[in-house]
Amino acid sequence: MLVRKRGAGQLPREVGVLSVVAFVVALGFGIVAPAIPLYARSFGVGTTAVGLAVSAFAFFRFASAFAGGSLVERLGERAVLTLGLVTVAVTTGAAGLAGSFPLFLALRAAGGIGSAMFTVAALSLLLRVSPPTHRGRAAATYQGGFILGGIAGPAVGGLLAELSPRLPFLLYAGFLLLAGGLGLLFLRSGSAGPAAGTPDPAVPEPSDDPLPLRAAFRSRVYLAALVANLGVGWVLFGIRNSLVPLYVTEELGRTVAWAGAGLLAGSLAQAVGLLRSGRLADTWGRRPSLVLGAALATVSIGLLVLPPGIGTFLVAMAGYGLAASLLASVPAALVGDVSPARGGRVVAVFQMSADLGAVVGPLAAGWLTDVASYQVAFAVSTGVLALGLVAALALPREKRPG
Questions:
Q1: Residues 147, 273: one domain?
Q2: Which of 28, 217, 312, 319 lies most in the core, judged by the most C-beta atoms within 10 Å?
Q3: Which domain holds residue 94?
Q4: Do the domain assignments include residue 269?
Q5: Residues 99, 225: one domain?
Q6: Quick one: how far is CA 238 from the chain centroid?
Q7: For residue range 114-130, what is the model confidence (pLDDT) as tens digits?
Q8: Rounded to a whole number, what is the distance in angstroms from the first to the last CA of the chain?
Q9: Is 399 a domain residue?
Q10: Do residues 231 and 341 both lie within one domain?
Q11: What is d(CA 340, CA 130) in angstroms, rounded to the nearest whole number?
Q12: What is the Cα–Cα distance from 64 to 329, expressed in whole angstroms?
């Protein structure tokens, strides 16, 4: 496997391939997302069933991630990544042709299993092939593919759903097969070797032996990554998409367009921040970068506890977007530092922490809003992010990578 010289500031080729795959996957997911509620409604079901169609994918993705990590350790990242993408492609295409809601729901659940396989395998491979001096940049580049695809997809998906709610599912299946083909053609299964040329004695030789999960849990570095990723799932993948639109329309008295503007501001800020966040993690250091990201995230969501105001809302969304650029790269780099070999279950649990936040966050915040207020829901969410800040501050001070 070709790994370019780290001194030249280059990333392994696999990072670029995985980033393109991430873009294709996120683009397809963004295309299908607006069609899911419409398609579920076409079966004549109620709002609760529509929500179940959305959550089934996330729940089975969470529930199967650990098994996906075990498969990575047994079969290797490339095989599991391809199998996961093909699984989501087949189930998504079949869901677009489903003739009943129970069948549609079952196919969505099976798609979540494939998604877990792909996500764990891709991140495990990314961290394994990336040298410690460039691990933050590798994670940021990979996340950038997801962000760009996530921004472009929904606009196209909304137009396609107007034509036919089935069409986005079939198109997404095609995108996934394309991504799977890219993985088969351009990803290799070899171990990450040292940079070309003279081996660097400061960088330990890589190994395919996975780190035992029990050993990972004894590491403060790994625990900090888990807590930070829980906050990312809680806010970025949870309440930002479920609670924020309602907050804008009901609490601020604005149109849905303003909610979209806030979400777009956050996405753009995150995309811009990713240009530098990985380099900060690699050159400034993991601990200060994580402290900065966690502090900025805590303050940004904390602004929403203040009296409602559209200006405060937009600043909070943009601020959290910048924080998310650090929280998307630094915790992943920390996991790679703890487990530089084939990640498997260590990476799976890391991914599960974000999925857990994405599942519990909207439910807890929604309940708190119903029994108390939006401000209380945002206050609890701020507390979850503050736990990540405490964990970051508790990290040992170590020499910067490189």
A1: no
A2: 28
A3: 12-184
A4: yes
A5: no
A6: 11
A7: 999 999 999 999 998 89
A8: 22
A9: no
A10: yes
A11: 9
A12: 23
